[in-house]
Design brief:
Length: 145
Amino acid sequence: MALLHDPQVRSSIEQRVRALTPDTRPAWGKMSVDQMLWHVNQALGLSLGTVTVGRGGPPLPAWILRALINIPMPKGVPTHPELVAKKAYDFNAERARLLNQIVALTARPLDSTWPKHPAFGQMSGKQVSTLSHKHLNHHLTQFGV
């Protein structure tokens, strides 16, 4: 799987984020584009330690979830209840926040200690970078970019 820390991968993700517009519609799912941006921002915030949520997610042990990081993310995978967008958000603010968080996450060395994830437990930098790319790619694909 790709690492968000890879400069080419990061650049591709950033270009795809910039290609989104307030009118971009999903190919599947219920979220609007502004809600998707808020959702992925919250998820990146978990990895950066700027967002905290209670224990939640799939009822599987963290070690099993970490083993699943390298397989493709299916449509309809369960979302932590606190990461479900419940209102409208400012598209431009959320897109700018996402681009800033991508910079912040990829500026952190992979061999750093990363915040413990509420579902995946303690992850290595490589696992965080892989999961972050996988999650962003999943939702950008959902919105056709």
